[in-house]
Amino acid sequence: MDQLIQQFKGSGSFGAGRLSVACDIYERMVRDKKCTIFLGLAGATVPAGMRSLIADLIRERLIDAVVSTGANMVHDAIEALGGHHYKGHWLMDDHVLYRYHVYRIYDVLVPEEDFIKLDYKLAGFYDEIAEENKGKTLSSSMFARELGKRLNDQNSILRAAYEADVPIFLPAVRDSEFGYIYYAHASRRGFQNTLLLDAFKDVPEIIGICRRSERNGMIIIGGGVPRNTIQSAALATKSGLDYAVVITMDRQETGGLSGSTLEETVSWGKLKGNADNVMVIGDAMIVFPLMVASVIERIGKDFERARPASLGKSK
Amino acid sequence: MTKKSEEEQKFCGNCGSHNAYNYPEEIFCTKRFLENKNPVVKTLWHCEDWHLNPQKCQCVEDVTKHEKR
Q1: What ipTM, to 2 d.p.?
Q2: Which end of chain B is more exposed for a tag (fewer CB within 10 A), N or C?
Q3: Is A117 annotated as catalytic?
Q4: Which residues, in sequence order, are CB contacts of B3 under 8 Å at separation 6+?
Q5: Rounded to an integer, what distance in angstroms lies between the CA atom of residue A298 and that of residue A254?
Q6: Per the CB < 8 Å rule, is A101 touching B23?
Q7: Cα–Cα distance, A103 to A290 (Å, whole number)
Q8: Residues facing residue A164 across a β-bridge
Q9: CB contact under 8 A, A99 and B21
Q10: pLDDT tens digits, one per residue of B38-50
Q11: Cβ contacts of A98 on chain B, cutoff 8 Å
Q12: Which domains does chain A have, with CATH numbers?
């Protein structure tokens, strides 16, 4: 794989050149013992099949912290509980899918019953978490940890993060099935003694990691809320990010963060002016696995990366 | 519609509270879940709270076909 990436580097042009630069930057982040590597996940990364890749990166300590949409972790939990994502087609008749209770994510299909089984199971988990915490408010990373503790699947991102004590921040947690499950759990309990989650509690946690880290790097799949959460935490350190790789297909002209250039990020002070950075315009489902394969080949199988001091002592 | 045919259409699978569970035989009843009762019931079962708010889905049709086999 790395031979191909080196050929891309030789070309240096267009997407091939950018991808080779992304691999170089990721390699530098991995080899930098004083860098904390954040992975931002937006879009349907897990339904498209990147679940076990991300779980492996967490276990191998090639990623130190994850910031994700709630939905990606919902889909991770669906698989962990025995549900599946199926290969479909983007031209399928959605009216027919609706009648058969099947949801479509571009060319991936998820049966409604897998969502319902998740709702049922997780409503029980929420009850347990609420009982154990007795009115104590959790941050989203504490919530993700509680879920990971209860999922028994080695390919699960939530489980891998729990075992490796890697934080997963879910800044938009309520904007996913996790929010609906809260409603089901709370309604069943008459809104008494429910699970309590405070999104603001994440803020000092993630800023603390950035502050304690000598250098910070991010790899972004998509953009949106996860990207801004990482960038804003880096800004709060008053120095900005040292490394950045953004993989996206969005455009900058809309002013949305998923398409905004890293030069624009510099203007906010969220990325250092001299940071190693590249934006790869392409499908992350192709680009990210190529990047990972190339970097793993470069560092070799005996390479070991320690838990960064910024994360504190393992629990 | 005759009283008998109305009765024949009283299925959980036709109700507004149903979600697919083990398609098509069983459904998940949100109403029963909120009442802390076992929410997984037969698609062709119905409770006293049944009301016709059709889902325009295939549940009842498909489970009926399965049962005829």
Answers
A1: 0.88
A2: C
A3: no
A4: none
A5: 37
A6: yes
A7: 29
A8: none
A9: no
A10: 999 999 998 887 7
A11: 56-57
A12: 33-83+112-283 (3.40.910.10)
